[in-house]
Amino acid sequence: MKESTISLNLRKQVDDCRPYIAGETEASVLKKYGLDKVVKLGSNENPFGPYENAKRAMKESLKVINRYPEDDYVELTEVLAKVNNLDVTNVALGSGAGNVIETVARLLIDEGDEVLVAKPTYRLYREVSILMGAVIKNVPVKSDFTYDFEAMKENISDKTKLIWLCNPNNPTGVINDRREIERFIESVGDDVWIVLDEAYADFINEGQRPEIVEFLKNKKLIVIRTFSKFYGMAGARVGYIMAQAPVISAFDTITEPFCVNRTGLFAAKAALLEDQAQAYRVKEFILNERERMSRALNERGFTVIPSSSNFIFAKLPDGFYSAEICEQLMAKGVIIRECDAWDYPEYVRITVGKKEENDFLLSKLDEVI
């Protein structure tokens, strides 16, 4: 098609945004390299989900898929409120965590506001903030990849509107001590919002996860969670937000009506009420397998950063770079994530998969390193 000469007249902030580049898909790699099999360990997906009752509920949803999901919205919101010991007015739904993050940015950020973002962290925070006209202040993590909360506090000015936090962080999988996070939230003044993304928090070891919900009562705090990771429902696109009631009311005002599909709503409710035992059995397997994989990578000359999530962030042996290694692995039927986009070209991010998938990756690593 011939390119038009008409001025598009897009928002000026669009030019400053970088596209979010997801991990390679199995279909694209199969086609590109002419393979019969691909193991995908690049997008932090849960290979065991969705669980049995969630799958049953998905099938059940098809009986009423022709109807808008008003009642299902209410029912899932009520369940989430009860599970988190909140009032139903403190919870709202979104189409995955990404949709919630974008809506929160539209809700809070005015042009010229300063926004603090750790470096590295999930890239969507930066892009949605820039699109709203924010001025980004990057705050590097410490040498052990934990958040530098003192540096964050030093970067707060009278123009600072919000701070994005991700616990565990992505792409590193690293957490800060729970008391340190709680003290930081308590110490930030009432003029600054803190948005805490807990997409991977269910993988944190027992006793290490901060007690966040109590802070919702008297702090400018928003918590974002998703069913994509722990419950293995990445394709269902169900996320949610927890905040003070006036924030939830405003969130619901500006978000798209019925933005969560009925199948996802049915599955999420079943996962919460009926699949907990299976989900925690899978968690135990993933954490054990993560430690086994970490040891295997260390033995191969990698430097593995201790993770509290379902993925591993690791520095390659000296002389190797992630773009080259990831390309070579894809040609052999394995997808992992290069970290050039986070300015860590010597690091890779590896999702913990099933045992046979992880073993396949290790065998292919032995061929390229």
From TrEMBL:
Signal peptide: none annotated. Keywords: Amino-acid biosynthesis, Aminotransferase, Histidine biosynthesis, Pyridoxal phosphate, Transferase. The keyword Transferase applies. Its cofactor is pyridoxal 5'-phosphate. Pathway: Amino-acid biosynthesis; L-histidine biosynthesis; L-histidine from 5-phospho-alpha-D-ribose 1-diphosphate: step 7/9. GO terms for biological process: L-histidine biosynthetic process. It comes from the Bacteria. Residues 37-364 form the Aminotransferase class I/classII large domain. The modification N6-(pyridoxal phosphate)lysine is found at K229. It catalyses: L-histidinol phosphate + 2-oxoglutarate = 3-(imidazol-4-yl)-2-oxopropyl phosphate + L-glutamate. GO terms for molecular function: histidinol-phosphate transaminase activity; pyridoxal phosphate binding. Pfam families: Aminotran_1_2. Its EC number is 2.6.1.9. PANTHER family: HISTIDINOL-PHOSPHATE AMINOTRANSFERASE (PTHR43643:SF3), HISTIDINOL-PHOSPHATE AMINOTRANSFERASE 2 (PTHR43643). NCBIfam families: hisC (TIGR01141). Homodimer. Belongs to the class-II pyridoxal-phosphate-dependent aminotransferase family. Histidinol-phosphate aminotransferase subfamily. This is Histidinol-phosphate aminotransferase. The lineage of its organism: Bacteria, Bacillati, Bacillota, Bacilli, Lactobacillales. The gene is hisC.
